[in-house]
Design a protein that fits this description.
Layout lengths: L1 E6 L2 E6 L3 E5 L8 E4 L2 E5 L3 E2 L4 E12 L3 E7 L4 E7 L2 E12 L2
Antiparallel strand pairs: 1-2, 1-5, 3-10, 4-7, 5-6, 7-10, 8-9
């Protein structure tokens, strides 16, 4: 069984036991979170259901790898180098369930 969930403005294809990195969630480590925004669920056939719930455990609150931003204008001696590290939450999917 797999599901497509949406969190942080992005969509993720998940199944039970998968580990994903999402935008930062306000939750402590080892806390269980429920994701109610489920786009679709599939057991054998595709089912778009609005009453599905995905339960996940927060493994870690950390920062992602650094992204380098480099701006340059040729022949003008203009160079700017900047870096950014995004806050992320690492989740383990524990359960995908359909509520009635």
């Amino acid at each position: 069984m797999f599901a497509v969930i949406e969190t942080g403005g992005k969509q993720y294809l998940v199944k039970k036991g998968s580990i994903i990195k999402v935008e930062r969630l306000q939750a402590e480590e080892k806390e269980e979170v429920e994701i109610n925004k489920v786009i679709c669920v599939s057991n054998n056939g595709l089912s778009c259901s609005s009453n599905a719930v995905v339960k996940a455990e927060v493994l870690e609150q950390c920062r992602d790898k650094k992204i380098i931003i480099f701006k340059k204008k040729r022949r003008k001696n203009y160079r700017r180098k900047n870096g950014h590290r995004q806050y992320i939450t690492v989740l383990r999917i524990n359960e995908i369930s359909l509520q009635k």
